Amino acid sequence: MRNAIGGLMALVVFIAPLAGIAAPPPQEHSQSLQEVKTLTAEQLVAAVMIRNPGLQGLAAAAEAANYRIAPAGALDDPMLTYAGAPKTAGGPRGFQERVELSQSLPWPGKRGLREDAARARAEGREQSLADGRLALMAAAKRLFAEWAYIHRTLKIKHAHRDLLTELRRVAETQYTVGRGRQQDVLQAEVEAARIEADIVTHQRRRSEVQAMINGLLNRPPQSPLPPPASLPAPADPPTLRILHEVALEKHPELRRIQARIAEANAQHSLAEKEYFPDFKLSAGYNALWDSPDKRWVVGLSINLPIDFSGKRSALRDAAEADVMRYQWQLSDRQAQLLAQLEQGRVRVQERQEIVAIHQQKLVPLAEESLNAAVADYRAGQGSFLTIIDAERQQLRTQDKLARAHADYIRALADLERTTGRSLGDGDRLTGTGPAPTNIPVQSFGQE
C-alpha cells in the first residue's frame, strides 16, 4: 500500500505541469460532481478533462499553432518607399520626389513548404494535446482505483472490528460457563484495537488520495468527493495483435514524432530551394528626371544565392539530419511501445487471475476456516487463538482481493496509456456491476 501511494504521489508530481494553479472553474461543474451519489471512473475522467487548466493550456497552444499556418504561407507585406530632394523646394520645377511600390516574391514552392512546416507543427501540438489527455485519463483512473480500494478496505476493517466485538461476546460467554479463559476476551480486545489503528492509517491515506484527485480537478485539497462506485469485474484484455495495431496507428506520441518528421522534411525541401533566388517586383515614379518619359519606372530584383560561406549547405544538411533523427526516434519509440504493451497486457492478465483466485478459492476458504474455528471453540474442542488466526487470515485475504482488484484497474489504465486509447466498453470502467468483494456479515453471538 505504501508503494502504491508513493507511486501515485510521483505520478501526480509528474502530471503537475498539467494541473497548474488557476481560479476555480465554473460553479456548475462543481455542483454536478457533488450531486453524484457514487463516483465512477468515467465521471472522474470527464470532470478532469473539463476542469484541468493544464489541459486547457495545451488546447490553447494547439489552437495558436493552427492560426499560424496561414501566415506561414503568406507573402511579405508590400513596401512603399518615398524620398524627396529638400534643395529642390522653391526651384523652377518645384519640390522633386520619388515614390516606389515593391513586392517580394519567393521562389515558387517556398510558401507552400513554409505552410507545410507550420501545418506539421500544428499537428504536433494537436498530438501533444491528445497525449496530455491520455496522461490525465490514466492518472484519473489510477487514482479512482486507489479511491475505491481505500473505501473498500475501510469497509473491510469496520466489518472485522464488528466481528471481533461479537467474538469477544462469544469469549465472554465461554468464560462465564467455564469453558474459556479471560485471556481470550483480552485477545479479542487487542485484535479490535489493532484494527482500530489500521482504520486510522487508512483514513489518513484516504485524505491523501482525496487531495491528489482534487489536485487533478483543480480544487482545494479537502473538497468533498463522492464515494466510489463498485469496481467492474475484470475482463480479458484485447489480443496483443490488436493492441499493436491500435498503438502503431493511433498513439499520439508516435503521431507527434511523425508530425516532426513531416516538419523536418518540409524544412529540408525549403533548404534545398534556398539555392534558388527570390524576386522583388517594383514600380515607381521619380520626379528627379528632367524628361517625363523617364520618370515612370518598373523593375525586377533578385538575390544571388551564391553559397560562398556554406550557410545554405549547412542548413540543408542540418534539416536532413533532423529528418534522420526523428525517423530513428520513431523507430525506437515504436519498439519501446510494443515491449511495454506486452508487459502491460501480462500485468493485466496477472491481476485478473489473482482476483479470480481470491474470489473463487481464497476468500471462501478463509470464511469456512473461520466458521469452523468458531464452531470448534463453542464445542470446547478448539482454542480462541485459532479463531484469531482464522480472523486475521480472512482479513488479509479480503484485503488482498480488494488490493488486487484495484491493481487490475490501475494496470488496465497503464495499458490504455501505452495503447493510446480506452480499451473498455462504455461501462467497463464505470463500476456499474456488482462489487466482487462483498463481505459476509457473520454473527457469532450466543444462540
Polypeptide structure, described:
The protein is α+β, with helices and mostly antiparallel strands. Helices cover 66% and strands 7% of the residues. The chain has a single domain (2-419), classed as Outer membrane efflux proteins (OEP), CATH 1.20.1600.10. It has a four-stranded antiparallel beta sheet with strand order 1-2-3-4, with no helix packed on it. The chain is elongated and about 140 Å long. The model is unreliable at 1-31 and 425-447 (pLDDT under 50). InterPro entries: MdtP/NodT-like, OMP_efflux. It comes from Alloalcanivorax venustensis ISO4. Residues 1-22 form the signal peptide.
Show the helix and strand layout:
Layout: H1 2-19, H2 27-34, H3 41-51, H4 53-67, H5 69-72, E1 79-85, E2 96-105, H6 110-176, H7 182-216, H8 240-250, H9 252-273, E3 279-286, E4 296-302, H10 311-378, H11 384-419
Antiparallel strand pairs: 1-2, 2-3, 3-4
Summarize this, please?
This protein has 447 residues and is of the alpha+beta class.
What key phrases describe this protein's structure?
single chain, Outer membrane efflux proteins (OEP), alpha+beta, disordered C terminus, 4 strands, four-stranded antiparallel β-sheet, disordered N terminus, 447 residues
